[in-house]
Design brief:
By secondary structure, this protein is of the alpha+beta class. The protein is globular.
C-alpha cells in the first residue's frame, strides 16, 4: 500500500523584526527543476497531527531552527488552493485541493544559524518583504509574506 500525502500543510514565514524574510531554494529534482524559492512548508504527517506541531517539525527539519527558542505564532489564517496537477500523484486519487495553515517565526536578525536539509534545499537568502514575495514560486506564499509585512496578520 502506498503512503499518500495528507492534503493539509503548514507554511512558516521566518522573518526579522524589520521584516527581512528567509527564502529557501528547493533542491532540483524532477518536479522542482525550476528556480523554486519558498518559505518553510510541509504536509502534516498524520491526520491528527496538530498544525502547530507540524510547523515546529518542518521548521527544524528544513532550517535547524527550534521554534521554542523564538516565538512561533499561529497566524490563524488558512488558505485552500488547488494542487498543481503534476504533483497530484503524491495524494490519494481524487484529491485536488490542499488546506494550508500559516505561521510566523520572528528571529532577532539575519545572523541566526540556518542549517539546510540538503535533500530539500540548496540555498537560502534574506530579503525585504516585497522582494521575498516576488521571488516566491507560489502565490499563497507571496500573499502570506505581503499580509504579514503589512501588519494584516497581527
Amino acid at each position: 500500500m502506498r503512503d499518500f500525502k495528507i492534503p493539509r500543510s503548514v507554511l512558516v514565514l521566518i522573518h526579522t523584526p524589520d521584516m527581512q524574510f528567509l527564502m529557501l531554494k528547493r533542491a532540483p529534482k524532477g518536479e522542482f527543476d525550476v528556480d523554486f524559492w519558498q518559505s518553510v512548508t510541509g504536509s502534516l504527517d498524520a491526520e491528527d497531527e496538530p498544525p502547530i506541531l507540524a510547523a515546529k517539525r518542518e521548521l527544524f527539519e528544513e532550517t535547524g531552527l527550534i521554534a521554542d527558542k523564538y516565538k512561533l505564532r499561529d497566524l490563524h489564517y488558512e488558505v485552500e488552493y488547488e494542487i498543481f496537477e503534476q504533483w497530484r500523484y503524491r495524494y490519494a486519487p481524487g484529491v485536488t485541493n490542499n488546506v494550508e495553515h500559516q505561521f510566523a517565526l520572528c528571529v532577532p536578525n539575519t545572523d541566526v544559524l540556518i542549517q539546510l536539509e540538503p535533500r530539500e534545499h540548496v540555498a537560502y537568502q534574506w530579503l525585504p518583504a516585497e522582494q521575498a514575495a516576488e521571488l516566491c514560486f507560489s502565490w499563497n506564499n507571496a500573499a502570506a509574506i505581503r499580509r504579514l509585512a503589512s501588519g494584516q496578520s497581527e
